[in-house]
Amino acid sequence: MTTTSALLEATDLRKTYPLPNGGSHLAADGITFTLPPGGALGIVGESGSGKTTVARMLVGLVRPDHGTITVDGAPRPAKAPRGRTARLARARQIQMVFQDPYVSLDPRLTAEQCLRSALQLHGRDTSLATGLLDQVGLGTREAGARPRHLSGGQRQRLAIARALAVDPRVLVLDEAVAALDVSIQAQILRLLDDIRRETGVALVFVSHDLAVVQHVTDEVLVMRRGRTVEQGLTRQVLSEPADPYTRLLLASVPGEGWDPADAVAARAALTQGA
Questions:
Q1: In angstroms, what CA-CA distances link 228 with 191, 231, 234, 265?
Q2: Pick from 168, 191, 166: which is nearest to 180 by CA?
Q3: Are strands 74-75 and 66-71 parallel, antiparallel or unpaired?
Q4: How many Cα atoms within 13 Å fall on the side-chain side of residue 264?
Q5: With 0-12 CB in 10 A as exposed, 13-18 as middle and 19+ as buried, what is 187?
């Protein structure tokens, strides 16, 4: 997964958390990947695989113990920079959309006020709010509504619009559709694909669901117990998985002709080989 024109590059990322009993938990170890401008990378794995830790390291919410992150060839500081200008410049590099939109939405502001506030903070024309709402499929009624009066899908659309208001180079989405109904998931996935084509923003899509990742990513990185077990082109990994853990994830996705016994057998084979 190398490229001569990498927008985002993560090299040998490692993160360990202390445990109450005095031990430690290795959440991520040796995570390395590159993302080209306008590209889309999926990071997948079950709960506890370390994928969210990687996402948080990318945006600066978690400091890696080791490794580097670069954007456009420039190292991304491990510590948040001092000074308003430097902090805003850092925010414009990478934005994050969380599983729960309330994490990033101010419940006191209407959808339009939320976007205007973000635009103003970053020195952009506040009139762009209308276009952003339209871009994510929110109309006049939703523009005047506060988050509590929006549906889950509408709140996630607003969270995406707020992230885009910063005009980021990279958008990190952590289980951004996991809490939504299947039909709403499909709408959000189509929206993200459209946004990537229209704006050129690169996506890092963090998910436990390979069926979701296949719709929006070019490449995929599969994590288990903090380490990469497989990575490559999404279509190749999903059609010809090389690692037993990837085969387990695929066997666990319901679909036409799906047999839960296949997932049980895949889990047993993985346990025996561990």
A1: 29, 7, 15, 22
A2: 191
A3: antiparallel
A4: 3
A5: middle
Is residue 4 scored above 60 in pLDDT?
no
Nearest-angstrom CA–CA distance, 166 and 147: 19
Mean pLDDT, the chain, rounded, equals 88
Q: Which amino acid makes up residue 263?
A: A
Instruction: Name the one residue in this structure whose structure tokens are 């952590």.
Output: 174
Amino acid letter, 221: L
Distance CA 167, CA 145 (A): 23
Per-residue pLDDT at 256? 63
Under 8 Å between Cβ of 249 and 210: yes
How many Å apart are CA 169 and CA 182, to the nearest integer?
28
- Cα 231 to Cα 224: distance, rounded to the nearest angstrom: 12
The encoded tokens of residue 233 equal 């082109």
For tokens 């889950």, the residue is: 152
